[in-house]
Amino acid sequence: MRRYIIFLVLVIITTACGATAQPTVTPSPTATVEPTATLTATPSPSHTATLTATFESTATPTMTPTALPTNTPTITPTPSITPNPEVGFVYDNWEVFTVADNIKDGIDNPMIAFINSNDQQTIGNIATAQPNTGIETLYFVSPVSPGIRIPILDMDSNTGSQIYLAQPGNALSYVRVDDNSEANGLYILDFESGLSARVLPGDNPLVHRGFFIEPDWAPDGSQMAMAVTTGYDIDIYLYAKDGSSRTKLTEQGSYDLWPSWSPDGRFISFVSDRAVCPTWIPGEENACNALTQPPPTGGHVYIYELATGNITQISETWVTEPPYWINRSLLAFASGDQFDLLNPQRRIWQANILTNQTKEVTLEGAPDTASYLSESWSPNGQSVIVQVADTSNQIVLMTSDGELLRRDDELDFPRFSMSAAWSPNGERMAIGGSSGQCPYGIRVKERDYSNIATGNPPPSMCDPEFSADSNFIAFTGINPRVDGRIDVYYSNFNGFGANNLTVDLRGQVDFIGWVGGRP
Questions:
Q1: What does the alpha-carbon distance between residue 46 and residue 35 come to, in Å, rounded to a whole number?
Q2: Strand segments (E) across 90-170
Q3: CA separation for the pair 212, 395 (Å, rounded)
C-alpha cells in the first residue's frame, strides 16, 4: 500500500513537471503566431473580395464596347472610306451692310445685276492696262433708270461670278475667297436686315465629293437649298435667309445632288444614286463598299415634295448634270456625258411631274447618233430651240414631240456655244453666243422663228436673258474695237434701243442676271 502511494505521488509529480515544461519549448512562440496569422487571414478575404469586385467591374466595360465598334474601323481603315468631318450648322463672321431702302423688302420692278472687278477710276484710256485692285462690286441697275447704279456688295475679286440671287431680290448668297482662309466659305446676305454671315465654311464650299453644286433659292427668297458633304455621302439642306435655322431634307446615305426649286415652291428636284447604291455608310444594310466600288458620276432624277416629304423617282435615265424646271409641272434634263470621249452623245428629256410621264425628245429624221446641245424650252414646254450636232451642227426649232418647225441655216455656233432665251410670256426668243464665242449681233425672233431684230456687231450678243415681265433683254456684248472689252447691255423686248450700262467702268464686267419683278 505504501509502495502504491509512493508510485502515485511520483506519477503526479512527473505529470506536473511535464506540464510546466511546455512553455519553454520552441513551439511557444509558434502558438503566439497562430492567432496573429489568424488575424492576418481575416482581412485577407476582405482584400480578396475587393479584388474580385474590381475584376468584375473591369470586365463589364471591357465587354460592353468589346470588339464591335473597334473592329468596324479596323476592317476599313483606309482613307477612301474614312468619314469626312460633319459640317455643322454655322452662322458666323457677321457683317452689316447698308441696303438701299427701295430694295430691302424685295424689288418690285426688274433690275439687272452685274459685277465689276478691278475697277480703276483714274484711267484716262480704257485700253491702257492697270494693276488689279483685287476688289469686285455687285451692282443693281434698273433699265428704267440706267444712270443710277446701286452698289450692293464689295468682295474679293477671286469670288468671280459665284453670286446667286433670290429672284424677288430680297437675299443672295455668295462665295468668299480671300487671303484670310479662315473666313472663306458660302455666305448669305439678308437684304431686310442687311446682315451677312457664313453658313458653310471652306475654301471650295460649292465642291462636294468632286461635284460642283450651286445653291438654289426658293421662289419667295425665304430659304436656300444646298447639297453638302456629310460623313460618307451628300445630303440636301435648307438654309433660312435670316440664319435662324438649317433643315436636313435627305438622309439616305446616298449622293444627293443639284437641288432645284420648282417655280411654285412645291417641289425640289435633285439627282441621286440611291437606286444603284442605297447607302455608302459602312455597316448599313446593302451598303456600297468604297474600297471596291467607284463613286457615282451622277444619278437618277427625283423630286421632293415639301408639304409631305415624299420623294418620287422621275426617270430610269442616268444623268450627269443638273435638271432644270421649264414650268411648275414640267422638268427637263439631259442624259449622256459630254466629257466621255468614247461616247459624248447627249440627249434631252422632258418629264411631267403631275402625271409622272417622261419622254425623250428627238428630232424626226435625225440620226440616232445626234447630240442635242444648248437647248432652250418655251415656257409652256411645247417647243424647244436646240443645236442638233452630228456630222453637221445645225440650229432647229422643234416641238416636244420631235416635229421640225424651223431649221436655221444662217446661224452657225460652235458646239455648246449657243445661248438662247425665251421671254416669260412665250412671245419671243433671243439667240446669242456664250463663253466669249459670240460672232453675231442682236438676234430676236418671234415664237414661230420669224425675224424681228437682226443687228450686226458691235456689239455682239452673248448670254441673252429676258426680264421677268418680258419687257427687256439684258446681255453681254463684246466690242472688238476696245481690246475685246465686254460690257453689259440692255434693249427693249424686240432687241431695239440697246444701251451700254457699263461703258464708264474699268476692269472686268460679268452679267449675273435679272432680279426682282414678276412675270
A1: 18
A2: 92-96, 111-117, 135-142, 145-156, 163-165
A3: 29
Contact by Cβ (8 Å): 278, 255: no
Q: Kindly report the number of other CB atoms within 10 A of residue 309's CB atom.
A: 8
Q: What is the mean pLDDT of each run of 10 residues along the chain (519 residues)?
A: 39 39 38 36 36 34 37 42 80 91 88 90 58 86 94 90 95 89 93 95 93 97 96 96 94 96 98 97 93 94 97 96 97 84 86 95 94 97 95 92 95 90 97 90 95 91 96 91 84 96 90 88
Cell 430691302 appears where?
Answer: 104
pLDDT at residue 123 in the model: 56
Three cell numbers, residue 212: 460642283
Contact 246, 240 (CB under 8 A): yes
Residues 6+ apart with CB under 8 A from 57: none
| Cα Rg, the chain, nearest whole Å | 39
Q: What single-letter amino acid sits at 6?
A: I
Per the structure block, which three cell numbers stand in for 351? 418629264
Instruction: Give the integer Cα–Cα distance in Å for 111 and 10.
Output: 140
**pTM of the full predicted structure?**
0.81
3-state DSSP assignment of residue 60:
helix
Q: Which of 469, 504, 457 is nearest to 142 (CA)?
A: 469
Q: How far apart are CA 166 and CA 223, in angstroms?
A: 9
Kind and range of the H or E run holding 18 = helix 2-21
Q: How far apart are CA 236 and CA 339, in angstroms?
A: 26
Q: How far apart are the first and last CA of the chain?
A: 151
